[in-house]
Design a protein that fits this description.
This protein folds into three domains: 176 residues, N-utilizing Substance Protein B Homolog, Chain A, CATH 1.10.940; 58 residues, 2-Layer Sandwich (Alpha-Beta Plaits); 203 residues, 3-Layer(aba) Sandwich (Rossmann fold). The protein is 42% helix and 16% strand. It has 20 helices and 17 strands. A hairpin with a 2-residue loop joins strand 2 and strand 3. Helix 1 packs across helix 2 and helix 1 crosses helix 6. The longest helix is centred in the N-terminal third of the chain and has 23 residues. Keywords: Methyltransferase, RNA-binding, S-adenosyl-L-methionine, Transferase.
Length: 468
């Protein structure tokens, strides 16, 4: 064990390190101070694991909670929201100093909590007091203390002004909330940049779909479980479940297959496919099957169940799809795993083929703010060749006059328009179909759904038809 001492405002703390796990030790004079230091130690270890090992934060924290069942719901909320808050504002906070310094890390926690308007004021106050903030000439402690009891404006420019006042780092800009390489590959219109960044620094709500029952029936059933759900003006089966965490396994509407969690932008893909009654569709990159279930549900709404074949290289994902289909009572969803490059389904056979290709997932950074700091530019640049190969291979399954839909949850043009244009150049027997943007009603040959347009993730979709 290695021990290092640092001078703080109230005590002499120690950081102990065993197997790369750090813990902060202070003289705590209250229960709140004890909890604050325990939280800080846990959050530090999780944060460092994510950055050092480049592991997704949701996976890291999920494993931690699985192994440490002692935490109650309040503990989990403080740990989870503080961790993700650090990543959400890391583009600014990282300029304060080295997070591996205990005093600096506590300063970062305090400022992130302020920017997030977290309500655990006693914990924030303890972090602030223990952080030795008076020794950091860049931090305006009076400004931080004066604002620590207020709820701040959610506007990102107001947050920036607040950060400038607290930190004196006036060269920090809103663009820095995303890495430089993002702006090189994701072309955001100048008039939309501020609203886009505003969306990317806030959490989207939990979006869901009603299936097997009407939307109003599902809303009523959710209300009985004290879950407030509101319908969307965009799609008749879409539900907004708000921002609070929900234990779905305790929700009867979920366990009986009457709702599925699916982001609004993701739902745009199935709506763009617009499968007809009794049609035959292949979901070529199905994952755990969210869009396969949506396609099937849309066929039901059109008047009659068709058939879905779902494929993926990951067997465990297909197993999860089968569980979800069984829960919903969808009996005509089959699985056909990819095995190498050989097409797992028949050629010239399907009315429609959906290729939701593996991608950089930049469109999901609202929900996963850590990914913008653990990914590098090759998360984008490495994908187009693979995406084009999958799209080209999958297109062989489309029958004459059938439809081919290409989608990603990326905002990078090289993964989206670039792939589609390359495919069309090599496959003149496919032509683009016009898509109506469901949120703006504008017409597009290829559609990017931006997070700020309807409080959702980001998504891309293009629809083609085999004409020869």
């Amino acid at each position: 064990m290695v021990e290092c001492s640092f001078t703080f405002l109230r005590a002499i703390p120690l950081i102990s390190m065993t197997d790369n796990q750090f813990s902060f030790h202070f003289v705590a004079n209250s229960g709140a101070e004890k909890r604050a230091i325990s939280y800080a130690s846990t959050i530090y270890n999780l944060f460092d694991t994510v950055l050092s090992n480049k592991q997704p934060a949701d996976r890291v924290i999920g494993q931690y909670f699985k192994e440490h069942k002692k935490h109650g719901s309040k503990d989990r909320r403080v740990i989870r929201e503080s961790l993700f808050g650090l990543f959400r504002w890391w583009g600014w906070i990282q300029h304060i100093g080295n997070y591996q310094s205990p005093a600096t890390f506590l300063q970062m926690l305090t400022i992130a909590a302020q920017l997030e308007s977290h309500t655990w004021h006693d914990i924030r106050a303890a972090w602030l007091e223990f952080s030795d903030i008076s020794n950091n000439a860049e931090i305006n402690i009076n400004m931080l203390l004066a604002q620590s009891q207020t709820q701040d404006n959610d506007d990102v420019t107001s947050k920036l002004a607040q950060f400038h006042s607290i930190s004196s780092l006036t060269n920090v800009t809103i663009d820095q909330l995303l890495p430089d390489w993002f702006w090189l590959h994701c072309q955001v219109a100048p008039t939309d940049k501020q609203s886009f960044i505003q969306a990317m620094t806030s959490r989207p709500p939990i979006w869901a779909r009603a299936q097997n029952r009407s939307t109003q029936e599902v809303i009523a059933r959710l209300k009985q479980a004290d879950i407030e759900a509101t319908p969307s003006k965009y799609f008749s089966d879409t539900l907004n479940l708000g921002y609070n965490s929900i234990n779905l396994n305790q929700v009867a509407a979920y366990t009986s297959g009457e709702i599925e969690i699916q982001d609004l932008a993701s739902q745009v893909i199935g709506q763009t496919c617009h499968p007809q009654a009794n049609s035959l569709w292949w979901d070529a990159c199905s994952g755990a099957g969210g869009k396969s279930l949506q396609l099937y549900s849309l066929m039901q709404q059109a008047g009659a169940e068709g058939r879905i074949v779902a494929s993926d290289i990951r067997r465990h994902a297909l197993t999860e799809l089968q569980k979800r289909a069984k829960r919903a009572g969808f009996k005509r969803i089959e699985v056909a795993p990819w095995q190498g490059d050989v097409l797992p389904v028949a050629s010239n056979y399907f009315d429609g083929v959906l290729v939701d290709a593996p991608c950089s997932c930049t469109g999901t950074w609202r929900r996963n703010p850590d990914m913008r700091w653990i990914d590098e530019v090759n998360a984008i640049s490495d994908k187009p060749a693979l995406q084009l190969a999958i799209l080209s291979r999958s297109a062989a399954a489309v029958k004459p006059l059938g439809e081919l839909v290409y989608a990603t949850c990326s905002l990078a043009s090289v993964e989206n328009e670039g792939v589609v244009n390359a495919f069309l150049q090599a496959n003149p027997h496919f032509e683009l179909e016009t898509i109506t943007h469901p949120f703006t009603q504008t017409q597009h040959s290829m559609l990017t759904v931006w997070p700020q347009q309807a409080n959702s993730d980001g998504m891309f979709v293009a629809k083609m038809r085999r004409v020869k």
